[in-house]
């Protein structure tokens, strides 16, 4: 099996999976009907992308593995998502800020990944770009609305940005697998996206009358499987059905 | 601040060449948000290629109480319908 490629696919897919799972938690609990549907739509887009990646990974893995095995039957240390996407929905501002900080990165990544030498990854990226362009528009709009809204909405959005900022730098960490994939023209060297990412985010935060955090202390670990305390709860929720009723299907 | 967002009427064009049709209504803080909400609420199953949003308060509606004077006089004027012509068979969908 092409282990580097397999691991790299999981890196890409787990971000979508866990971000989608977090948004999916809001299904039926959004601030109002319209926003609830919007968040759930984004969640479904992300799950769709995840399936594309996992089906490919399952094919590489062989051993009769399916996309479901990869999604539901790994242990916490085997998930490679960044810490940012597993952060909880403390309030609507947190949900939007988390998703926005991920979306900007996600779009930059896909814009490069569409030129991958790997046909499957390139195809998934091309399909996802349209979806993610909308995600960043939706969440970016809400960051502006809340930031430049009322005193309370401004305060909540600023808190969310301050709280999540420490997880942004990890997006640009290059793992050993990703490095090899980038050298082969299959993966993307995400470290080169860093400057343009912070430029874009800074410009939007300023437009939203928010303060860009000055902190230079950043958390990392997700990409190598060292997660925050929230990850176990997500997996317990997500994996319950497959663990309790193995091979159960809808 | 208004606690509730205003109501918007949503018009969606299903295909190029067809007219926009009223699909329903939703709440949004402004026109831009109304468009995004409409996209998510009404076109998530590929129902449309174009969306119009109009704030409900900007629509002037006829009063149902006036239905008598507005519409009933037309009931006995069958000659206003183009039903007195014989249409050639070749013309379909009239």
UniProtKB/TrEMBL annotation, chain A:
Transmembrane segments: none
Pfam families: PaaA_PaaC (PF05138)
InterPro entries linked: Aromatic_CoA_ox/epox, Ferritin-like, Ferritin-like_SF, PaaA_PaaC, PaaC
SUPFAM superfamilies referenced in this protein's UniProt entry, alphabetically: Ferritin-like
Name of the protein in its database record: Phenylacetate-CoA oxygenase subunit PaaC
Organism: Kordia aestuariivivens
Name of the coding gene: paaC
From TrEMBL, chain B:
Top-level taxon in the UniProt lineage: Bacteria
Record InterPro entries: PaaB, PaaB_sf
Keywords annotated in UniProt: Oxidoreductase
Coiled-coil segments on the chain, per record: none
Gene3D superfamilies per record: Phenylacetic acid degradation B (3.10.20.520)
Pfam families in UniProt: PaaB
Gene Ontology molecular function, alphabetical: phenylacetyl-CoA 1,2-epoxidase activity
EC number: 1.14.13.149
Name of the protein this chain belongs to: 1,2-phenylacetyl-CoA epoxidase subunit B
Organism: Kordia aestuariivivens
